[in-house]
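Throughout our pipeline, every protein is held as a single compact record rather than as scattered files. The record that follows is passed on verbatim for readers who wish to inspect the format:
___
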Amino acid sequence: MSTSPSLYPTPSTPVTRDDYVQLAAEIEEYRRQNAAMVEELARHELFNNSLRYRLKSFPRLDSLCGLQLTQLKHDDCINFVSQTLKCIDDIRLQYANDEEFLNRPEFLGWSQYSNRQGEVVNFIIRKELRNVTPQQLMDRTWQLQTDNDSLRRLGPSHIQTNITMLQKITDDILVIDRKTEDHSHTIENTRPLVLRTIHMLFRVAHDDGTQTMGIKTLDTPIGDRIQHDEEVWWDIFYWIRVAPSNSSKEITTITEFGGTNLCECEEHATTWLKELMFLAIRWEAVVVAPFLLKQ
């Protein structure tokens, strides 16, 4: 069996001085190349570290975008609140004397009403809560809507919501930047769906003891300047109304969650309304339970 000739000297092939000289030259060349590679890697590492520290010196992108927001005028905000309250009254009038709503079955005490007109669904769910006042419910709900950690407790585990206050008009009227990551829906199978909106958050106390909280996307193009490329703009309109009940000798508060949602099909509307019911149940657990435990 034949074998390929070895490239190295064998005992039968004496090593000459020229072989040593050639080997020494090759070793020296390898050392030179290695030193050059080490120097090049050091330059890359120095550049990367420099770039990393420079990037850290810049403010966050969210902060830069927030600085572009034009401050809203007080009178414009008051008008926006008035218009939103008018929308809430109009929606409530749709079911005030609706026998279909009054006779609907309840889910853990919550009654549900929805009215669909094209792609727009108006909805309300309602429940009478005992041994808690409208003021207590509103104070606790306002705290939930203005604190990130508390707000996350209201949503399912796959929803991560972050809010930033952009402008404080009064103690009861705020402009909020709201960013919601939905990890149950991904983009390109890697990144979660990110929903972005800028909305006004307000609360109003009425003369009869009723209190209303509204959450509505601002009708303004300022959102275009704060939205990132990978985000989806989201128009929202929700409200919470708590009113004292006059039909009971006990302390009882009639609580209503309502709003408007755009749904592409009946299936999506049904799914969304089911999630709304679970949201109301989580809200009841977070807001109402602490007051009952103190009694």
About this structure: Confidence is low (pLDDT under 50) at residues 57-67. Helices lie at 17-57, 61-67, 74-95, 99-102, 134-145, 148-152, 222-226, 266-293.
